[in-house]
Amino acid sequence: MTSSTTSSPAAALHPRAARRCHNVLNPLHSTHYFSPDVTRELGLLGITHRSAVNFAVRAAAMGPVGAGVVTATFYNYKHELVAAHVPEVWRTAAPREILGARLRAVDATLRRLLGEEAVTSSEMREAAGLALRATEACSRTARPLYAAHADLPVPEEPHLAYWHAATLLREHRGDGHLTVLLDAGLDGLEALVTHTATGKGIAPKWVFSTRGWNQQEWDAAEERLRGRGLLDSEGELTEDGVALRRDVEAETDRLDRAPYEHLGAAGVERLTELGTAFIGAASRAGAFPADLVGKR
Hints:
Number of helices: 17
Oligomer: single chain
Structural class: mainly alpha
Distance between the termini: 43 Å
Helix content: 55-70%
């Protein structure tokens, strides 16, 4: 699959361009986590619990792994929640079956959110070509979720190829991000608390309902972060907390720069433009809960 957009190797990539591009590709991947189509398709396989569905569709690319692997690679989920569903979920349906169900659900989700005209458009073909070109420079080394998904075949239909490429780019950045969080001394829950404190992370109610943590554990994490001078008494980031989150994102950018440098400045700009239109349409169609992001 190719794109009509070409990029000049001489054009410098803006320092924040890769992150801006990621910020429109990542939510496109994530639409299926909130989709009734995934609930329906996994339900047909006998997987009905919301957490089991979530763990199954994202972890299936790694094969029938145990709870420890899922906790390690997902990072911010409470292990006890993971262990309640993994590896039991693989006894309900094999990873291969789950991957097929996920792709059918993604197909239905994107067609419903974007409409047939967008799904079959030349812009979608162009976006898929650009995103796949960027993935050519991704690295498997120390990136388990990316590596597992990189071994999956690229779907033939452009909207599914675009979603697949967005998934690869999301997991590539995400795997690198976990390395940075470890280096910053943030455990899974502390990472969630500090991200939510920026106003860009998921609201605590969603952390409790999807990640397995509770209010007492959230409060304890806040107290640990206050002890490090990263949060104030109101749960807001201090100057040191703001600097830490800024440094975390900047280092994540550095570890994730290869795909976007490979695509080039013009290609990244065009992919961001196309991706913005697609995720904007999906969001307006109700892809995400209205209260998903927020400090409270």
